[in-house]
Amino acid sequence: MPLRLAFMGTADFAVPSLAALIAAGHDVRAVYSQPARPRGRGHQPRPSPVAALAVEHRIAVHTPERLDEAAIRDLAALELDAAIVAAYGLILPPALLAAPRLGCLNVHASLLPRWRGAAPIERAILAGDTETGVTIMRMAAGLDTGPILLVKTVPIGPRATAVVLHDELSQVGGALLVAALDRLSRGQIVPRAQPQSGVTYAKKLGREEGAIDWRKSAAELDRLVRALNPRVPTWFTHEGERIKLTEALPVTGQAAPGTVLDARPTIACGDGALLLLRLQREGRAAMSAAEFLRGHPMRLATILPCPATS
């Protein structure tokens, strides 16, 4: 049964959810998204990915800087069955949460209550989790604290990157959202409260987290590279220049942390070693380690510096 909906999303993660609602025949009355931001080489303001899809389907797009009383009145006037929120970027006030008949539903990229918050995909990889997933929940006033409607688990492979996992979870989210709406509208779902145990918070990524500390284990640094790129560059310094590391592999090896062990190059870590596979100099394109070393050799037994500790 088609439902009267508003969709609130901004980032790429939300696009498959909006596309799935449209394909399922739901009546998406309005899309709310962050205002156009400078993007691309020309840094010209461009609409968000969600807004661009909405325009393509001739859906009205609203881009308020904040959800004030006027925005709440506009939404209430739509007489919605539900509002869908996915990677939107604004906090919904209580009056808005209560406006739609079936409430506001959120597409969240984790197995709640694990990884509530801003960066659940990256934090799951950083922590070494072997599985994650998508939770469809009915939103409440707290941070990702609302009751759960549907969950789908997705394994995290040993070489998973945040980019690949993001795309997989976004597709899962779209399909799961349509299923949740269908079952909720038929009275076939009983929302269940989140467990009190197992709560973790996926705090926003900070640029300082990208600094590679060779004193950490190779496994930790491998997860760092796979989790942060490209949102937060992972980097180290060599001969005073900051070098981005975009792909690496943990291997065996032992020496003082930061030591260049061989010509591939492999760098000793606090436990094990890290084989550098793709690197990028400032102002250059990313390249294979072999290409990088032809113009920027790393001498054997050199010790790369570790970040200063506070």
Report on this structure.
- With 310 residues, the protein is of the alpha/beta class.
- It has 2 domains: 198 residues, 3-Layer(aba) Sandwich (Rossmann fold); 88 residues, Formyl transferase, C-terminal domain (Methionyl-tRNA Fmet Formyltransferase, Chain A, domain 2, Roll).
- The protein is built from 8 helices and 16 strands.
- It has a 7-stranded mixed sheet with strand order 5-2-1-6-7-9-10. Strands 12, 13, 14, 15 and 16 form a 5-stranded antiparallel sheet that branches.
- Helix 1 packs parallel to helix 6 and helix 5 runs antiparallel to helix 7.
- The radius of gyration is 22 Å and the shape is elongated.
- The termini are far apart.
Structural descriptors:
310 residues, alpha/beta, Rossmann fold, Methionyl-tRNA Fmet Formyltransferase, Chain A, domain 2, 7-stranded mixed beta sheet, 5-stranded antiparallel beta sheet, 8 helices, 16 strands
In short:
By secondary structure, this protein is α/β, with parallel strands linked by helices. It has eight helices and 16 strands. A hairpin with a 4-residue loop joins strand 3 and strand 4.
Largest sheet: 7 strands, mixed
CATH superfamily of the largest domain: Formyl transferase, N-terminal domain
Helix/strand structural class: alpha/beta
Percent strand equals: 25-35%
Lateral strand order in the biggest sheet: 5-2-1-6-7-9-10
* CATH class value of the largest domain: Alpha Beta
Determine the mean pLDDT: 95
The oligomeric state is: single chain
End-to-end Cα distance:
58 Å
Please give the domain count: 2
CATH architecture term of the largest domain: 3-Layer(aba) Sandwich
Query: Globular, elongated, flat, extended or rod-shaped: what is the shape?
Result: elongated
Classify the helix fraction into a percent range. 25-40%
CATH topology of the largest domain: Rossmann fold
